[in-house]
Amino acid sequence: MNSIWSSYRELGLIRRRTHRTRRIVLGVIVIIALCGLTWKIYTTTSDTTTADRSTGSSENAAVAPAPVPAPDPHQIITRPITGGDTLTAIFESCEISQGVMYQILSADESLLALDVLRPGNLLTFTLDKETRTLASMELFIHPGKRVLYRRVDDASFNYEEITIPGDWKQELLDGSITGSFYLSALRVGLTDQETANITDLFRDRIRFARDMREGDRFQVVRSRQFVKEEFTGQSRIEGVRIFRGARMHSAFLFDDGNYYDHEGNTMARALRRYPTRGNYRVSSHFSRARRHPITGRIQPHNGVDFAMPTGTPILSTGDGVVSRVHRHPFAGRYIEIQHGSHYTTRYLHLSRILVRRGQTVQRGERIALSGNTGRSTGPHLHFELHVKGRPVNPLTADIPVATALPKKSREKFERRVAELVAMMEQTSREIALHREDDHS
Is 286 a domain residue? Predict the structure, then answer.
């Protein structure tokens, strides 16, 4: 009996242990299941959050900036001008048709900027992204001047001159004659053109090849234009003093664009108002916005048209140097003459040209015969006057006359001369002190 009871007791213990083990195993399984469920929820939430961050909400998408597409490297073509380049060759190399080139030349008829491409200039072509046709072309002349030609419609362009005044910085160039004036001027830093302007300025007073002697001195105040510290290539002579023995010659630039000596006497030779001997009818006046009689477009008319028979003699309106002799598809045969440093004249649509580039001409000298070349509605002369590079009305503009400085301007002129002379004298004193130190 005791043995049986002992057996039942052992059996009960075994059963209780079995139930306890089952509960433990079941608890472990439940815990594992709960951990798995929690991890799934966490990973799902993380993926959703990441997706939301990458796509953004509708509100964020509205304010987020649109991605900027990379520029098409073939949409903009830049071509620097080198020696021997022609506009035709440049357009061909850029695969732009000659028809488009003539559309731009038509717009350039009023400006004629593309006739004088020089090394250092830059042409930039911008093509339409869709059609690959020319949308615009920029001519970079120097850091202070650009010309932008923009397409107006399928058949035409217009132009805009972009100028930056920059900063004009003065400097004094002081030298003595060793050999010729020309070589002595180049030695102190004057350019060929600046030296030519000075010799032309004093042409009626000094015979440079014969009158200048070894040891004679000269002083030149020059201003040069800089844009963001970059020299544009543009300069002007502000004042000159030349010492020949005990005699001094001087020239000072005044606000009116003319040079006067230290006594206020003009250095400029007078300009003629008209480029012909007779009087001829004005068929088209100077205008900033004239409707072109052939194209019908509104564009500047930078000169005056005189109706006259083909073959009428054309005269230079002043002493100067021929700076251009050219034939343009729309301006026809034309001449440009530089009169000193501030005045330029142009004569367009000529039938015959009687001078060459670089030739010196006199006031009233016959330079050409009128005609009807280029784009024209009839025989006439188109005549332009430019002052400091800007076209003005040649019939009303103030032009140099052989007179002294007006009395009302004398006080201002004398202040100007005093400033320039003080700059020259300061350097002269420094040179004298330096020489004394060398001899001591």
Answer: yes
Domain assignment of residue 54, yes or no: no
CATH number at residue 293: 2.70.70.10
- 299 and 349 both lie in a single domain: yes
298 vs 319: CA distance, rounded Å: 34
What one-character-per-residue DSSP string does 168-210 give?
EEEEEEEEE-SS-HHHHHHHHT--HHHHHHHHHHTTTT--HHH
Dist. CA 125–CA 41, nearest whole Å: 59
Q: DSSP letters along 241-271, please?
A: EEEETTEEEEEEE-TTS-EE-TTSBB-SPPP
Q: What is the mean pLDDT of residues 261-269?
A: 87
If one counts the domains in the chain, the total is 3
Task: Give me the pLDDT at residue 131, please.
Answer: 87
Question: At 218, is the secondary structure helix, strand, or coil?
Answer: strand
Q: Are strands 145-153 and 134-142 parallel, antiparallel or unpaired?
A: antiparallel
Does one domain contain both 154 and 171?
no
* Judgement on whether residues 388 and 411 belong to the same structural domain of the protein: no
Residues 184 and 98 in one domain: no
Whether residue 33 has pLDDT greater than 70: no
Angle at 193 between CA 393 and CA 116, to 5 degrees: 60
Q: Which of 310, 309, 284 is nearest to 299 (CA)?
A: 284
Q: What Rg do the C-alpha atoms of the chain give, in angstroms?
A: 41
CA gap 110, 164 in Å, rounded = 21
Residue 191 belongs to domain spanning = 167-268+405-439
d(CA 99, CA 79): 19
| Percentage of the residues of the chain whose pLDDT score is greater than 70 | 78
